[in-house]
Specification:
globular; Aspartate Aminotransferase, domain 2; 43% helix; Aspartate Aminotransferase, domain 1; homodimer
Chain lengths: 378, 378
């Protein structure tokens, strides 16, 4: 018997309450029993997003939400600043270019965070910027961008919409949509919300809705104006992702019961313990600045292939982590502490890493990382 | 206690095998344990679609698949014939127009099927038609269009791609993708495939792939060329709808075990029994021609509001049917016999209808419809 532990940055484990609710007999999305479920999910999402605006639910992965963020508020030729510090920064660029926005790229070295003053500079040098696109957590590097500071800079120097990919960050980090002025924020079901993939979430500010009036990019499935109208009536425009919305309701209840601040604190604590344990083992953090509380990217020890660590973690210890992508491939592996995650998930991860290094013949003092964890988590 | 019976044309009930499989702990879409599941689903879909081409899986509702069918193979200004015999014919028109195709509408009276010779006429009068869009089952009216005959007409008179919305028809009807020459066929998870909503399926012929090379409509999330490349490697381009694909594998196994021909025969038998029972009760069928084996649209008796029947079926008898839409609203209600459906689901439906008519004070001989069912189903 090899028990399985899912510690990748999405999909993440689904809590039994949500699994049980999603295993109930199917119900119809236009029938009265679905209305209160939808209504409760809408309210819970507003609470989680810290916004009075609607948070729309779309039946797609998070990337569908990112596409909706580009196609509903902009036009061909619109200037868009994209912060690119990893795979998902690149995705913003690709989406913007697919719909013919004029991309002004701010390249951030992998493992580093955007310096808000660099954004300030670019905003000063480019008039008429319509949107600023950024990740809250860049999942490929485990680095956060400072959304609060970025929002302040964007407001100060432009009328641009601030569009945040919070897919991996949501639930792990305190993101104050209204207070900071995030215009569009995209989330996904399979991360901090502890659900299977298939639901994208998107909040839209009043300023953004105004820009939607003049957006001419062709769209149909991700038409947010139509969705908003329908969802305010507790319906979706097309068939609802019934099961996921039922599960979402359970996840949101779990989050509300713990309390948003406690949820953020738990993620901060688990991430802190992970980082300290990694250092105690003698490994480096790939995030040189602003490490995320959702996922930790760990540098493989000198001479050890990060993909091998991933492989042995999985095959020998039953722990599914994530490898590195593109330029980080082989150099790192990634451990999530996101969503349905507590102390013993971290201890499991660290113990598995220690044993994996031993298996690989890399220098390691068994138990040293776990001890560092326990010190913090006790 | 009021037991619930879901007899609407999607979402349909999920079999326990699929529910159980989907309730297993989450796995990662890029990890090796997902590969054989994805591979088996791909093979099962080819079998169901009766094609050697790839059937791609998209994380969206069926409408997302319809959008993919329009945006990947056509261009602005392309002439598209759309058969419009109900709500979903209208949806083809709206999608085509959203992406600036030139729509040539063939309006079919609700409750009737397309006469293929009418299509022949339109094809003769319009040169350079690039696509013909049609429903296999028009869910809003319970009518089928004769895809085999339509395909023959399209091939005879044009090079147009035949694009079939088989969302409600798939599994209920024998649709021979390759043998008939269906270029693009869209399915969805929440109908005959007996799964929750959230997965669209789309087959693409080699002719259609050739047209994809010159399609310039902007797309990103539903980029089928990229998807095809990835899915041939048993991956999806973005996060996979892991849970639904696991469930799909179970559904496909159930279908394969019963045998495709037996599945079609079962749907034909259940639909036949439903129609005969409806007539025995003294009600009319809304489908005047080619009734679907997926869903039966039933005319409310004179003086009885169809929406009232829907309401009493639900509230008093626990049976969720579907009402009528738009011009059929109040005139009809609809009962599905689709997917995880057997004899006693039909008997339940008919018994509930008889009792509902009694409740409403409409003339009915209790048991007469059920007797007609039993005669056929014994």
């Amino acid at each position: 018997m090899l028990k399985k532990y899912l510690l990748a940055p999405g999909p993440t484990p689904v809590p039994p309450e949500a699994l049980a609710a999603m295993s109930m007999p199917m119900i119809h999305h236009r029938a009265p029993d679905f209305i209160p479920i939808f209504e409760a999910a809408r309210a819970g999402l507003k609470n989680l997003y810290q916004t009075t605006s609607d948070v729309l639910m779309l039946c797609s992965t998070g990337t569908g939400g990112m596409v909706a963020a580009v196609t509903n508020f902009f036009n061909h030729g619109d200037k868009a600043i994209v912060v690119n510090g990893g795979k998902f920064g690149e995705r913003w660029i690709k989406i913007c270019q697919s719909f013919k926005l004029e991309v002004i790229e701010i390249k951030v070295k992998w493992g580093y965070t955007l310096n808000p003053s660099q954004l300030e500079e670019v905003l000063k040098n480019n008039s008429g910027v319509k949107g600023v696109f950024v990740q809250a957590t860049e999942t490929s590097t485990g680095v956060n961008h400072d959304i609060e500071a970025i929002a302040a800079v964007v407001k100060k120097h432009s009328d641009a919409l601030l569009v945040v990919d919070a897919i991996s960050s949501l639930v792990a980090h305190d993101l104050k949509t209204d207070a900071w002025g995030i215009d569009i924020m995209v989330g996904g079901s399979q991360k901090g919300l502890m659900l299977p993939p298939g639901l994208a979430l998107i909040s839209v500010s009043e300023r953004a809705w105004k820009m939607a009036e003049t957006s001419k990019i062709e769209k149909f499935y991700f038409n947010l104006k139509t969705e908003r109208k329908k969802q305010q009536d507790n319906q979706t425009n097309f068939t609802s992702a019934v099961t996921l919305i039922i599960g979402l309701n359970e996840s949101l209840k779990i989050i509300q019961n713990e309390g948003l601040d406690n949820v953020f604190k738990r993620h901060a604590l688990l991430a802190h313990a992970t980082r300290e344990a990694v250092k105690a083992i003698g490994m480096g953090l790939y995030a040189k600045e602003m490490p995320s509380n959702a996922v930790t990217a760990i540098e493989a020890p000198a001479g050890v292939d990060g993909q091998k660590i991933y492989k042995i973690l999985r095959e020998r210890y039953g722990v599914t982590a994530a490898g590195g992508q593109d330029e980080a491939k082989g150099k790192i592996f990634r451990i999530a502490h996101l969503g349905y995650s507590d102390r013993f998930d971290i201890i499991t991860a660290i113990a598995a890493i220690e044993m994996t290094l031993k298996t690989l013949g890399a220098p390691v003092t068994l138990g040293k990382g776990v001890a560092a964890c326990e010190e913090i988590l006790a």
